[in-house]
TrEMBL record:
InterPro entries with a match to the protein in the record: AB_hydrolase_fold, NDRG
Gene3D superfamilies associated with the record: alpha/beta hydrolase
Protein name stated in the entry: Protein NDRG2
GO biological process: cell differentiation; nervous system development; Wnt signaling pathway
Length: 357
C-alpha cells in the first residue's frame, strides 16, 4: 500500500492520496419480480448489521452514493460495517435495455426483492440508507419486515402517493418537458438547475445520455405510481426503528420530508435540514452528512468512541428534541451550539438538527 500523505480533506476532494480502493463483489439474484444486482463492500462484522443503500431515479449506486462513501471521514464508518449497494433492476452499469412491453416492478415489489438479497448473503439485519425513490423502497421494506431493520437514513423521502393535483401537474409538465428534464427536476431544485453548476451539468449529462434511459423511465413511472405509505404517528402503521430524515433547505422534497417527520414517532426520529446542500445533500455536503450519520449510529449504540468534528464546527447547530409525555402530550427542548462548542451530545434519536454552513 502506498504511503499515506497528510492532506487537507475538503468537500470537493474527498479521497485520501494513497488510499487503496475497497474490494467489491457484485452479485445478481433472481426474485419473484425479476433479477436484482447488488455490490458488497467489506466483510460482515460480528453483531453488527449491514449498511444497505438504495438509490434514487436517474442514478445508480455509484452516481448516488460514491461521493458519500468515498469521503475521507466516512472511512471510520465503513471499516465497522459491511455495505450492500442495491441497484434497482436495469439501473446497474452496462444493464441491457428492457424489451418493449416489459412490466417494471412497482416500488412495493422492489421492496419485496430485499429479503432475497439478505437471504443470499445470510444477513439478518440492516441499517438502510435511501435517497428519493430508494428511501421509499426501504421504508416500505421496513414496514413489512420491521424485525430486520435496525435503523433508516431517509434522504428526500416522499411518503405520499400522488394526488389528483399532482397527477394533473405531472401530465401537463410531460407535454412540454422530456422525461430527463422531469427527472432532473426531481433530483435538483429549480435554483440549482438555473444556476447550472458543474455538479448539475455532470448529472444532466448522466441522465440525458444514459444508455439505459428507457429503463430509467420505467423506474420513474413506478415512482410516480407509488402507493401512500399511510404512516401514522400513533397508529399501527409506522416505522418502529430509529430514523434519520435528511433534506436540503429549499430542496424539491422539503415539504414532503417535513410532513413525513410529523407522521413518525418523535422519540425515534431525527430530522436534519441542511443549508446550502440543494437537492442532493449526499453529493454536495458529504462531510456534514457523514457527521450526522456517525451521530445517528452512536444513538443506536454503535461507534461510541467516534470523534465528532464537522457538525460541531458549524456556525450554528440547533437541536430540538421531543419526548412523549403520557403518550398524548410532548415537550420540546432547544439547544443551540456555536462554533466554539465541543462535540455534539450523544443520546437516543428524537430531535431536529438544522445545520448552517
Amino acid at each position: 500500500m502506498a504511503e499515506l500523505q497528510e492532506v487537507q480533506i475538503t468537500e470537493e476532494k474527498p479521497l485520501l492520496p494513497g488510499q487503496m480502493p475497497e474490494a467489491a463483489k457484485t452479485h445478481s439474484v433472481e426474485t419473484p419480480y425479476g433479477s436484482v444486482t447488488f455490490t458488497v463492500y467489506g466483510t460482515p462484522k460480528p453483531k453488527r448489521p449491514a449498511i444497505l443503500t438504495y438509490h434514487d431515479v436517474g442514478l445508480n449506486y455509484k452516481t448516488c452514493f460514491q461521493s458519500l462513501f468515498q469521503f475521507g471521514d466516512m472511512q471510520e464508518i465503513i471499516q465497522n460495517f459491511v455495505r450492500v449497494h442495491v441497484d434497482a433492476p436495469g439501473m446497474e452499469e452496462g444493464a441491457p435495455v428492457f424489451p418493449s412491453g416489459y412490466q417494471y416492478p412497482s416500488l412495493d415489489q422492489l421492496a419485496d426483492m430485499i429479503p432475497c438479497i439478505l437471504q443470499y448473503l445470510n444477513f439478518s439485519t440492516i441499517i438502510g440508507v435511501g435517497v428519493g425513490a430508494g428511501a421509499y423502497v426501504l421504508s416500505r421494506y421496513a414496514l413489512t419486515h420491521p424485525d430486520t431493520v435496525e435503523g433508516l437514513v431517509l434522504i428526500n423521502i416522499d411518503p405520499n402517493a400522488k394526488g389528483w393535483m399532482d397527477w394533473a401537474a405531472h401530465k401537463l409538465t410531460g407535454l412540454t418537458s422530456s422525461a430527463p428534464e422531469m427527472i432532473l427536476g426531481h433530483l435538483f431544485s429549480q435554483e440549482e438547475l438555473s444556476g447550472n453548476s458543474e455538479l448539475v451539468q455532470k448529472y444532466r449529462n448522466i441522465v440525458v445520455h444514459a444508455p439505459n434511459l428507457e429503463n430509467i423511465e420505467l423506474y420513474w413511472n413506478s415512482y410516480n405510481n407509488r402507493r401512500d405509505l399511510n404512516l401514522e404517528r400513533r397508529g399501527d402503521i409506522t416505522l418502529r426503528c430509529p430514523v434519520l430524515l435528511v433534506v436540503g433547505d429549499q430542496a424539491p422534497h422539503e415539504d414532503a420530508v417535513v410532513e413525513c417527520n410529523s407522521k413518525l414517532d418523535p422519540t425515534q426520529t431525527s430530522f436534519l435540514k441542511m443549508a446550502d446542500s440543494g437537492g442532493q445533500p449526499q453529493l454536495t455536503q458529504p462531510g456534514k452528512l457523514t457527521e450526522a450519520f456517525k451521530y445517528f449510529l452512536q444513538g443506536m449504540g454503535y461507534m461510541a468512541s467516534s470523534c465528532m468534528t464537522r457538525l460541531s464546527r458549524s456556525r450554528t447547530t440547533s437541536l430540538t428534541s421531543a419526548a412523549s409525555i403520557d403518550g398524548n402530550r410532548s415537550r420540546s427542548r432547544t439547544l443551540s451550539q456555536s462554533s466554539e462548542s465541543g462535540t455534539l451530545p450523544s443520546g437516543p434519536p428524537g430531535h431536529t438538527m438544522e445545520v448552517s454552513c
